[in-house]
Amino acid sequence: MTLTETRPQTQEVATGDHSQPAIQSPAVQWTPPTGLAGILSTGDHRVVGRLYVVFSLLLSGLALVLGVLIGIEKADIDGGFAVFGNANELFQVFGLYRTTLILCGLVPLFLGLAVAMAPHQLGASSVAYPRAAAAAFWTWLVGAITHIAATFAYGGLGSHQAGAAREQSVELTVLSLGVIGLGLLMGTGVVFATLVTQRPAGMDLLQMPAFCWSMLVACGVWLFSIPVLLANLVISWVDLRGADAMRFGAGDAPFEQVAWAFDAPQVFAWTIPLLGIAAEVLTTARGRRPKMFEPMAFIVGAFGFFSFGAWAQGFFDSADPAADDAHVVTGEALFTVFALAIALAVLAYGGWLAFNAASAGQRPEITPQFVLAVASGGLLTAAAASGVLRVAEPALGVLREADGDIWRGFFDAMDDLGESSLVTGLMNFALLGGLLAAVAGLYHWAPRLLGRPLSAPLGFLSVLALAGGSILYGLTDVLAGFFDQPERPYEAADLGAIDSLGFVEVLNVIGLVGAIAVLGGLTLVALNVAFVLSSSEKADNSQGGEI
Amino acid sequence: MADIPVGTPLAAPLPRPRTLLAGTVFATAATLMYFAALFAVYLRERSDALAGGGGWIPSDADIQLAQPTVAAWTMLMSAVTVQWAVYAVARDDRAHAIMATALTGLFGVSVVITTSFQYTQMGLAADESIAAVLIYAISGSHLVMITVGLVFLGLVAFRWLAGQQVSRQADGFVAASIFWYAVVIVYVVIWTAIFVLK
After folding, report:
1. Which is nearest to A279 in space by CA: A256, A255, A303, A305?
2. Based on the number of CB atoms within 10 Å of its own CB, is A256 exposed (0-12), middle (13-18) or buried (19 or more)?
3. Which residues from B are below 8 Å from A when comparing CB atoms?
4. Which letter does DSSP use for residue A165 in this model?
5. Mean pLDDT in each 10-residue stretch from start to end of chain B (198 residues)?
6. Percent of chain A scored above 90 by pLDDT?
7. Does the CB of A128 have a partner CB in chain B at under 8 Å?
């Protein structure tokens, strides 16, 4: 017998007389471990999914705290450092905000929902590799905790000023980000394999629910993007292991090498499941099954294809951008095409939702998840529009040549948007849209995922804070971009180009209020989940059932 | 219970989901993407260095082509032996399966030894040049890939020897062989991009 065989429920008693049948003794009941041992050793996909959800919500909260701290700095942008000691600390937190929000918050939150819900939606008993799902979760969690600790131990993804960071801590930060990537890659593989192999006979890929389809597309894109991130990190790490880092680990190069993961088009790739969740929530609210599923599946696939951004690595741009044969990735036609294609895909998706709303012919049931799904769609649209503005400069260059006098003011406002805080606004719009969609999914599937529904009144309160805060948080950075606020305002020298500094600071204060509101909304969601989980546990314990 | 006429053919059994095969294909695709990114960086940096008029490999380094060529041929032979193992397992040919798997393992280990030997001979310090950083990142990653492939092959071979893998359930060997082909392909690219084009 091997470990993979079924545990015997009967015991044979040696009688010495093999002609006699074995005596059947009462079945030996195996009791699974409970408490911490149960959590650590679990292979139950629902429990692993819940663990993903709980920890990724907590880490998203931490990311938003970092966002608030950065917002406080930006509120008085030319007044020195209010929170951080120097430019290097601001740089470290700037990087940590991004890695935490995406790789420790949003992506694992989607993976957790998929690990818990995809088998239910497909009619499967579990995910394809339950123990690999658990291993992926623990690998990711250890990596995430180490990454945050290493950054706060004078680490971070490199250093903004020479010698300002402790090199061993930078090495650990890079290594731990690799561990996070490895954990997410394992989780992605588990979800992908589940969607491909665990469907019942007769169900083809286009018959899967919208969320499963969007996760299939997302996992496909992540499966090809995360390895590129890992390759960047390994190169940085090998360089850092030498006596003196030469290029890939020197200065802020570790951050610059992975910066493509926090910028368009890749930032859209992290939010692909938003499309599936919104489709399910919005069509369910009208009590109808979605119509014209195939066009929607095509749109989600196209969105996924054009959001693959591992090729857009600005770190490898030419040293002299003005040279004739210079290569600047954000100036390439392909970059513009991808941004426009994403915007078109978002518009087409909105059209599909509108078609379904019109054909349903009845008013939707207004629930927290409905409002969240609508808001997440709005934020994604705002992100796509910001992406178009980001590439507008090279596209409008042709018009500028044709007649510069008429549109001069407009063209001037468009200058250098790709290096302004518009990029941060775009990222925040997309990521917070994804976060809102994940929370919508949490509300939508709470009865099955958590054991009972989440509180609706608390839900509406959190919706107000999350949706309102996200709009303020993203929009102010986009608007400040038109006044040339830099994307990376580390030092006073970076701020010289800002027009109307006072107005930009007012925008930044409004953005800070938005960040605080989002944090408050997420705290309400976390409290709601904690309350439901604890009450479900009590109910299960009182019934003697498994948690 | 409904009566079934005598002679009615039984319904075909539902196909067993090939989860191991699917998982291995995804893992192999991710691994190949990882190496594609490494090669892209390597070739880009090399191109920039040569376009700038400088050299690529430091002049005091001695990177011979002999050891990588031997390793490349060894890897190509292992692709044949791993397919031999799959063929033998599919036909329940125990003796040939053991021999083919052992040979594949031997070839894999010999490439690890050859690469390690070359590290000691080429006089290339990791903190000496950008080329050295990238060469160690790529070849070191490939050593890890070979080790994973050997462990995977060893695991399915052990399960087969223990009686779990029969000819109608050869997914494990097929999966391990797919990963091993990727190991071979990556080494052929390393041989070409790093050692031939040095």
Report:
1. A303
2. buried
3. 14-15, 17-19, 22-23, 26-27, 29-31, 33-38, 41, 44-45, 125-130, 133-134, 136-137, 140-141, 159, 162, 164
4. S
5. 66 69 95 97 92 85 91 97 93 89 96 94 86 95 97 90 69 93 97 91
6. 60
7. yes
Range with the lowest mean pLDDT among A18-32, A237-251, B54-68? Answer: A18-32
Least Cα separation, residue B148 to chain A (angstroms) = 15
Query: How far does the CA of residue B159 sit from the closest CA of chain A (Å)?
Result: 9
Residue-wise pLDDT for A184-219, tens only, equals: 999 999 999 999 999 988 888 999 999 999 999 999
Tell me whether residues B136 and A238 touch, CB distance under 8 A. Answer: yes
Nearest CA among A46, A18, A204 for reference residue A114: A46
Q: What is the pLDDT of residues A142-151, one digit of tens each?
A: 999 999 999 9
If DSSP codes are grouped into helix, strand and coil, which group holds residue A378? helix
Taking only the tens place, the pLDDT of each residue in A428-460 is 999 999 999 999 999 999 999 988 899 999 999
What residues in A contact B172, CB-CB < 8 Å? none
Residue A486: strand pairing partners = A420
Nearest to B41 among A223, A230, A235 (CB): A235
Contacts of A151 (CB under 8 A, 6+ apart): A92, A93, A95, A96, A169, A173
Are the beta carbons of A278 and A440 closer than 8 angstroms? yes
Partner-chain contact B17 A246, CB within 8 Å: no
The three-state secondary structure class of A486 is strand
- Cα(A230)–Cα(B37) distance, rounded to whole angstroms? 9
For residue B101, the Cα-to-chain-centroid distance in whole angstroms is 14
Residues of chain B with Cβ-Cβ distance to A228 below 8 Å are: 33-34, 36-37
Tell me the per-residue pLDDT of A249-287, one tens digit each, with 9 for 90 and over: 888 899 999 999 999 899 999 999 999 999 999 988 888
Positive or negative: CA dihedral A205, A211, A216, A220: positive
Domains annotated on chain A, with CATH: 42-543 (1.20.210.10)
What residues of chain B lie within 8 A of the CB of A126, using their CB?
A: none
Residue B91 lies in a domain: yes
Sign of CA dihedral A149, A150, A154, A157: negative
B140 inside domain: yes
Tell whether B163 is covered by a domain.
yes
Is 0.95 topped by the overall pTM? no
pLDDT > 50? residue A465: yes
Structure tokens at A168: 């061993």
Range of B180's domain?
Answer: 21-46+73-196
Q: What's the one-letter identity of residue A186?
A: M
Chain B residues in contact with A136 (beta carbon < 8 A): none
Domain count within chain B: 1
| pLDDT confidence tier of residue A492, bands split at 50, 70 and 90 | low
Is B67 part of a structural domain of the chain? no
Q: Residue A269 corresponds to which tokens in the numbers above?
A: 């790739």
Question: Which residue bears the tokens 């926090």?
Answer: A262
C-beta of residue A188 within 8 angstroms of C-beta of residue A222: yes
CATH number of the domain to which B141 belongs: 1.20.120.80
Q: How far is A189 from chain B (nearest CA, A)?
A: 6
CA of A364, closest CA in chain B: separation in Å? 39
Here the tokens at position B37 are: 């990114």
* Whole-number Å distance between alpha carbons of A109 and A57: 7
CA angle, residues A393, A394, A396, in degrees to nearest 5 = 65
